[in-house]
Amino acid sequence: MLTNRKQALIMGLPLGAVLVAFFLLPMARLILETGTQGGVQLYLDALTKPRYLASLFSTITLSAVVTFCSLALSGVVGVFLARNSFPTKRLLVSMLTFPLAFPGVVVGFMVILWAGRQGLLGQLTKALTGDKIVLAYSMSGLFLGYLYFSIPRVVTAVMAAAEKINPELEEAARSLGASPWRVIKDVIIPALTPAFISSGAICFATSMGAFGTAFTLATDIDVLPITIYTEFTLSANIGMAACLSIILGTITWAVLFFARIVAREDSIGAAG
Amino acid sequence: MKRHGFMLHTQLGITLICCAFLIVPVCLSVLTGLSANAFVGISSGLTLRWVGEVWTLYHDTIWRSLLIGLACLGCCLIVGVPAAYFMVRMKSRWTKMLEELLVLPLAIPGLAIALGLLLIYGGFTSFRMSWLFILAGHVVFCLPFMVRSVAAVMAMVDLDSLEEGAASLGASFAKRFMTVVVPNVMPGIVSGALMVFTLSIGEFNLTWMLHTPLTKTLPVGLADSYASMRLEIGSAYTIYFFALIIPLLTAMQWVGAKSLKNKTVQALVEDSPEALLMPTTNPGREFRGVPVKLISCAKTFADGTVGLKPFDLSIEAGQTVVLLGPSGCGKTTTLRIIAGLETPDDGGRILFGDEDVTHVPIEKRNVGMVFQSYALFPNMSVYGNIEYGLRVRGDDAKKRSARVGEMLDMMQIRHLADRRIEQLSGGQRQRVALARAIAVRPRVLLLDEPLTALDAKLRHSLREEIDTLLKRLGITAVYVTHDQGEAMALGDVVVVMNHGEVVQQGSPRDIYFNPSNRFVADFIGTMNTLRCKVNQDLVVLPGGHAIAKSSLVGAPQALASSPTLLFRPESAEIKANGDGQIKAKILSASFLGHKNRLRVVLPDGSACTLDAPGGQRFADGEVITFSVPPEHLRLLPEAARC
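The joint structure predicted for all components is written out below.
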């Protein structure tokens, strides 16, 4: 071995220090906080009291539905873009990946511009039917917002995976008499499954933890991050906030962990 | 076909709808931010009033976001790049855990991390009130992206051989890291850096919890402006955000496209005919070889497998020793022990001349090494590669350029001096690797299967060149190969190894004609075996013909009752008219031009391979007879027992 252990350890040391100081210690403190503020009873409360349970339930449902829809839409778009080349392709790809860097608040604002009180949708429906449709501040608004930040993430992953599919596989299937639908079912979807699993998990985890979008839309539906925030700031119930954070963190981590085991592919690209 | 067209149109339709869904509000926000009246829209006229107002209200948040973004980038570079190296280098349970740990900041919502940070550091008021508090959160959040981006590229680059290459030229750990590792993982560092900066600029979840009224960042300001319900201010402010991230995203796309393009050009350049014919010039004899001695060197690996059993090896100054054997026989381990890339087990010693170098690391041993993959540094030109070892040694510019020139001339590659490594053919790379190793005037030249990566024709011509070079230079050389032809052509001494042991050591001629056991006999060329019987003073060959025991070279008095005799295909003499000692039936005859190669079956059912002159004709199934002159019949030493 060329590099001796000591030299390699010195290289890893700063990372260890940063993680311990600013991640492991705070996390330990968070867990400790739930211990001193009620312990097991606190967790039981979090999982049984209707307010928290409803919040947990709506967050999980919303995230699952958003994940499914983004996978379906991005699957079509990603394969289409990876498989076809045309003059405006680069432009379309740039448009689809542009929102990748948007913080949740900006995504929320985008939904307001689409479907808020002065939004485009409202103006269009008013002009067409006389009734103004406003979706932004309801569950539909949250759904649109979550879809908005999920699509770019999944599209990039699907495109990367679709580019790696050997076109000869598809040609072979067609030479054996498979219809286009069968080719999709038997060749393309199986080849994309690992990408679907890993990007789906990231999409789910990001949706679970998304705070900015819901914060900007200020809906009456409390997703879990908003509940945590209100517990912490308004009710000053630090114990419950910590407890809900731990529950939320455990769920997202577990989803990512199992996805990585299943897809055997590292997941990169989850961002709040 | 029609159906296919329908599918395509559906796909295009969905793609366009998705694009519109994402981009329309972006355009709307830009238009609203520039419109005089947000409710009327663009028809109310364009104005920069809101953009200006936002600047007065919020410009401090923009500067603070840039400051935190840059500081976060700096921290991630300083911490993340070495950490990625650590994780790629030290594959163990601990790094696996660390990898898992690095996923956590991505999996655990920013809110939770922020809460933890507040609980633990909230009491340190001056830290809590400063932007450094936000920076700490951003670093935890962004660091995994940097580490993973760099580690992904590191895992693709053949770091092992590049670093070993640099070390063999004398570079210390720090020097190797800065001149070889960092430049070669630059694509990973650049894309990681862009990602970290973009993420930091846009981070909201953590920042919202960690900020104070005096440490607002851009996204926090945005949230404030959206909450103020003034659409035009929110929109104008969003324009600033777009203006910040568009260059970053463009750069990211550009870097991605560039690395993709690089990967596709990687295909090896074909060897041109002149590359094959390009002889090296006669180098002057430099007399710098030292004798090398290995004393009871053994190697047991960390997992307990024995790579090498204890053995001694003595190499005279200027001699070329070839270590020959099948893969896994320990030949490369031996070479790596001589190089200093592996240390022998306790008790083993390596001497260069009179100097004990057992515990001298490779960078201080002054060896030259040619790697199987060449390990040329892709971040340097041909010239830069050859010059590297001299630069590490601190030679001045004039001395360096003279020596590099000498090497370029010697290997006839002066016209390639400014080329990048990926623009070279296999044969050219081989020359550069040789030139780089020789340039530093090594005490010992070590070559690890240097011709394996080349095609047969090139291998042959380069083999001759290397032979000439080694002889002229008078350098002590150790050459590892699994190709017996190479071993025969190059070696003054051939050391045949198997299962971590030296099986036989001797001149090529010795090894070929007097193999010490069955393994050597089979490994070097083709060897036939004759199962014989002893009848008093006679040895009876298959088919009944007997020869005198005394006619066998080196046969002991006491011979096993059924000894095995060996002979090479070319020793067989095909006899006309059935005059030969042994009758055989031809199974297959292949005409190879200068000779026929016959596969025959003997009366006892065993098969042999015989060579016959190319002029003769043979047919499958034909019965022939052949003789082997007694001086070409060898008795296996292991058979010479009662």
